Amino acid sequence: MKYHIGTREAAAMAALVLVAAFGTSVIFALSNPAEVREVRMHVKVANYTGFNLDTDALYFGAIAPTGSGSRDIVLVNEEPRDKLVRVVMYGSLAPWVQPADNNIILPGNSNMSLNFAVHIPQDAEPGEYEGTIRLVFTPA
Hints:
Blueprint: H1 7-31, E1 35-45, E2 58-63, E3 68-77, E4 83-91, E5 97-99, E6 104-106, E7 110-119, E8 127-139
């Protein structure tokens, strides 16, 4: 006996396959969630040099136009699996800041120092500039 699949049955089977595939991808995505950490950053553009050693943000202090500074943050992975760390920055300070590296593989059970350098443009107006560093940790 031959069994023929009609249009409705074929459409139902295709929908079932799509739902199963989508469900699997959702389960995979939920089992590998991204961990996101944000760090505020701040610099004061002024005609003098100053320091701010507070630890609640990445403070570059006071820097004159054409000047530069740098600060480090420590990335920590307390899990046995390696993690991929992606750096994203935004805010008025972001265009002036460069991380030493991006898309970093952070080995399991380790920590690593990551340097951020700020370069103040010559035409920067005096004032306070802020931004945010977003660190996205995902399984490597």
